[in-house]
Structures
1.
Amino acid sequence: MTKQEAMKAFLEIQAQLQHEGLLEANQGAVKAALRGDEGEIFFAELAGANMTMQEIATGEEQEPFFHAFYGKPEAKALLLLKGTYAAQIASSMRALTAELDDMAQIVGLTARVASTLEPVEIERCLRGRNSCFVKGEGMLITGRSITEAMTGAILLEKAAMTHLLAQKIGGAKRVPLFSAALMHVIYQKKYSKINLSAESTATKTAPQMQSDAPAQTVREREIRAEIVSYGRRLQEEGLLQGTWGNLAVRYDEKYMLCTPSGLDYRLLTPEDIVKVELATLEYGEQRKPTSEKRLHRDVFAARADVGAVIHTHAKRCGVFAAARQSICCIEGEMKRLVGDEMRCAGHALPSTKKLSRVALKALGNRNGCLLMNHGVICCGTDLEGAYLACKAAEDAAGRQLGL
């Protein structure tokens, strides 16, 4: 990484933090560090639209939080930032247990609170985890890439928000221990590597772009582009984070088109969308489809009126999923789009037959339901309808929380 590349990366981090509301004036400056190819560290302080950057050679006097690079030798990026809800957790708790499975996957089963930025304390709190809270500082995030660090910051702030807001509706419950441990291992060993590989490759070549791939109809190309467009829109609006969440469209009686597994929506192209056979869930020589392909297929099979399904990790809906409560204050246009309520399905591991069973039971004839400690699924006759249902559900959740 050159100094110019580091400057560009810091500007991208700054833009994303501003978009996520993590660079507000009352939150103080964000400290960011990137590890260079020769062991040097590029360090920046981000405050609103202002940024200062310096290059620090190995062995020079360092910021205390740089020690995370030694505790996490695979880390390429560090962020030290206050957040809003994260700062409250850091000042009032010793650790936050994962109450949503996206935190379990990218952070760990718990996020500890470090009392200081002393090396021993940082090592203790990051052991077996990718991030932690820091008393008086907010949160310290490590990532094997810039995208992973940014996603970690978004998800840890979201986890703190979920815990605090869920107190209004009875409190959040932890992700079942076995499920949390299993999902963390799978993410670290499997799914995250797909995104890391794509991010480090300047030019991606998807298998379906081979010259012997079947020709796509005009309609198929349009649907592929539409899935990419809605995926990015959902991410921009905070309903998807990183690689979490997925979209699927019923193509015809035999196939559906869906998002691939483990690829960030910022990197997604129409060629990455996967055509999956509904009866067998086979997909041939393409990218691997979303791990929730079974859930999408089973919704299509159970509901002839559904043409598109969106699974999100929307923040306000996530509060209800973590508290295992229904969203009830749905009225007017929201009631037309979603139904009379959004019930919370029982617990099931992602990608399993059980998840389909409990989700379909909670969904009924409505256009949305919650997935316990997980997220939400919304459906519609097309992607626009499913998208509007997602928006309506998030608005209803915010209204019931008094936001």
2.
Amino acid sequence: MQIKNLEQKKRSTDNKDSALTVSPQVSGIQKSGTIYLFLAFFFGFLGVHNFYAGYVWKGIIQLLMTLFSSFLMFIPLLIVFIWVFLEICFVKKDAQNVLFEVNPFLQAAIMIMYLFSLFSFLYFYIPSSILLLNLF
């Protein structure tokens, strides 16, 4: 009788231990890589994609840099654009270390479109900033 009780206690403690040692891949909620990429493309300058992935501090820094960029001739905004492009290229996991499932063709297409929009921004920004500097 005592042996049976000891075996049951051992099984119950084994089950508790195995419940505590669940890998992060199973315990975390998987975020969509497609949603992450689209948020980065459309709202990346506000850091929305980082809030979605759980990188709250990165999102706050990007948001503040964008909001205060008008005081520094929009140079922080350019830094945020480059930062978001690098995140589109290299971020593969969310804050809980759970991998995104991303279609590589979609990622490549968004990278190309984002580069085009970045160069468009530079094409229109640099001449206007030089014109403003010449006025003073």
3.
Amino acid sequence: MFRKSIIFTTVLALSISMTGCGSLLGNTSNNNSNAGGMFGVLSSILGGGSGGGLLGNVLGSVISNGMGLGFVDNVVGHSTIDKAALEGIWIYAEPGCAFTSQSLAGSELAVKQKLSSAFNTLGIKSENTGFVFDQKGNFEALIKGLPLKGTYNFDTNSGKLNLNSSIGTIPAYVTASSKGLAITLESKNLAGLLQSLKISGGNALSAINNLGNSYNGARFGFDLVKYNKQ
């Protein structure tokens, strides 16, 4: 089972004040009180989407040391990932991709290179993008520092993840990556999500849509590193 998590070797001190979008889920009811600490920490790590926060050196150290989960399978639904593995704080590390069949999986490097160019243009980076999932089915995210929250449903057998938010239900997929987890979407859904959040930049959204046409059966999104407070 997919239960391991990334352990940061750097001692962290959460001393940065909340800025930008503020403490995530700060206005939720007491029913979410157990998750409140997780949601607040994401904003601190990312510096409220301002490009600051604690993330920089810590994430760089994790990636350079190759501290992944030791289990990679980027074929959607090919391996079972249980719900407990999804719960927690996840920080964006690099563009992610997944595929609907094993025969397509060899395209990962080429897809990531093209997606990286689009994300760079859009300003999506580790300092302003992350996700939090709690055990009660609530999620919240910052994408380029812009907040998105709601509830989620996760089918552990198929890897299908539905994010239910104020902008509608966003169909996504969860797969294992070398960093931790990848959350990916069909190209049209990823472009639609970014448009709904008012994220724009040149022809980058068109480039994402074109990737879907060039790599039929590919899914695009976010490779995520799990954060564990020491």
4.
Amino acid sequence: MDILERNRILTELQDQLASGEITIGEAVRRLRKDVTGLQQARFAQMCKLSLRALRQLEHDESNPTVQTLNSVFNPFGMQVGIVPRNSR
């Protein structure tokens, strides 16, 4: 994957997260699979998470801390923050 494709995916995921189109778990799973191509065990190790914690996060079955989320998003140059809600 070249840098342009990587940046396109990252921007798309940021937009989808901000608009509520996808969950955090879906975003994490896409980052892992589409950007890194890593298996869950290796990605969890890279992020200093247990495999169980990553699995729960990807399936939206956990209530992760900001620190946990930042450990997953940091390798992609992202961090958790507060954004304005979209007007509907």
